Amino acid sequence: MRKDSNGSHKLLSTENANFSDIEIRIIQLICREFTTEEIAQATGRSKRSINKYRQKLLIKTGSTNAIGILKYAIRHQIFLND
With contact defined as beta carbons under 8 Å apart, do 55 and 66 qualify? Predict the structure, then answer.
């Protein structure tokens, strides 16, 4: 996430988004319809941390909600329906 000259946030290029291992795991769990609490339990992190990761993922994927993250994941083969 970057701020432009007027202080508002600017999206990173979604084509070049680099995700950490934990971000990939969170995307996969979002795609499997896990709640924030379930993601926190599955990853050993707090719900607050998961909410922060979700916000970063929205920015990195150029999405406005979890459905956008799901669409991004399918489009970029981060999540494959198995």
Answer: no
Handedness of CA 63, 69, 71, 72 (dihedral sign): positive
The hierarchical CATH code for the domain 19-75 is 1.10.10.10
Nearest to 54 by CA among 44, 67, 81: 67
pLDDT in tens, 28-54: 999 999 999 999 999 999 999 999 999
Whole-angstrom distance, CA of residue 65 vs CA of residue 11: 14
- Domain-by-domain residue ranges, the chain? 19-75
Place of tokens 């198995």: 82
What is the arithmetic mean of pLDDT over 3-25? 63
User: Tokens 């990853």 label which residue?
Assistant: 43
* The amino acid at 61: T
Distance CA 61, CA 19 (A): 10
